[in-house]
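Weekly structure sync, notes
Attendees: PL (lead), two postdocs, one rotation student
Agenda item 3: pending single-chain targets
PL asked that the sequence for the first pending target be pasted directly into the notes so everyone works from the same version. It is reproduced below exactly as submitted, 327 residues in total.
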Amino acid sequence: MAIPTSCRPSARCACCPNRLNKPTHGYDKRYKNNVFPGKRSAKNTGIAQNRDMNVALRTFMNPWLKTPETRLLLAHITGKDKTWWLAHPEAAPSPAEQKKLQAAEKRLQAGEPLPYILGRWEFYGLDFDVSPDVLIPRPETELLIDVARRWLAERSPLGTGLRGLDVGTGSGIIPITLATLLPQAQFMAADISPAALNIARRNAEKHGVSARIQFTQADLLPQADSTFDLITANLPYIPSATLRGLPIFGHEPTLALDGGADGLELIRRLAAQVAASRIQWGLFLLEMEYRQGAALKALLRENFPDANISIQKDLAGLERLAVARQT
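Predicted structure, written out during the meeting:
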């Protein structure tokens, strides 16, 4: 879960409950409607006008094509891809489907996140089941996947003989994605919520990796005297006071968002648990809120004085991932 400093026209705002909505905070008015400052050529203006007319015509013929959200709802409820509907704007959903669409749109307007209405969301090119019991996957977490995949693949391209541990797994996106990328790697995934673990198991079955992921209920670090090449965690890291002012508050599970007074409460506990355990590890990755870099770096140095500690930035240039490597 990420809290952006500002919303760029090419980015989807991580703290908006409906990820496809235009963000309303920090939005640069110069980029209204995703138009950058500068003079348009006559050719580009003509193309844009034709595109706008086509969109308007489709919307007139089928009002469910009016926004990206309603197009996704239309595809989900009718079972026909949104590209089919865009190519056939004269077609109409059945009366039963329209009734379902109207009910879904009411939920959307009431602030319910679109992924919960759909019951699924995409992450790293994979489709994951989601419910109000789990955090909605965010693209910010792809940085963790990229770093973990690269580090593991350097040791074994297929993940042969490698083991990973994911703490606070939620819907299971981290171990499941890594298991699909490294077809011989093994993983353990822990979460305190039985409901979240049920979703994660379902996702593992969906992607054919359940035989290589052991799911276990635990309050952070599971009981394990073992060696893990990799430990990952995307724990709640939003400060409590900050969380209450965000659009997601009340719409996604507080258990998966609230990081305590400074946002580091659970991360602090996990680091201490790992340091005190008999678990051996090679790489420890922690997703974080962009303002926590210095504090998290100091926290990791205190718990792992012999490790190489660094902070990596995401594509927006924000500090997003704390990395501890055993030397």
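Discussion points:
- DSSP finds eleven helices and nine strands in the chain.
- Strands lie at 120-123, 126-129, 163-167, 186-191, 213-217, 227-233, 280-287, 307-313, 319-326.
Action: rotation student to compare against the earlier draft before next sync.
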